Amino acid sequence: xxxxxxxxxETSAAGVRLDIWLWAARFFKTRSLAKAAIAAGRIEVxxxxxxxxxxxxxNDQLLVHRGDExxxxxxxxxxxxxxxxxxxQALYEESAQSRQRREEQRALRAAERTGxxxxxxxxxxxxxxxxxxxxxxxxx
Length: 140
What we know:
140 residues, Structural Genomics Hypothetical 15.5 Kd Protein In mrcA-pckA Intergenic Region, Chain A, five-stranded antiparallel beta sheet, 6 helices, single-stranded RNA binding, ribosomal large subunit binding, S4_RNA-bd, S4_RNA-bd_sf, HSP15
């Protein structure tokens, strides 16, 4: 009977599929989301676009675009199974520049939201028509 898990020595020599590693490192919630991001070109390995089946090895440099965030990480460990968050965070090391840039962007987005208050009630018929008219102006 064969096991689906491999020993750490075998894993480090052969590497792990990129989509599986991204899922195990908790960059994406599902493997299919990781695969779609790779196919869309949002993931770079050592400065090159990659395929989902590309093997990731220790010390590889990854550039991960996820939503508005961009992570620049170095692979520290390999895993082919998703584990707890502390174990996943030990699989990579994010550069200080990347972390600082993400914090600045997060602060900028928070500053843009200051002063905004969501309406307490749903818009009535007149307000909906005004909102729709404003939306038509933006389309021009």
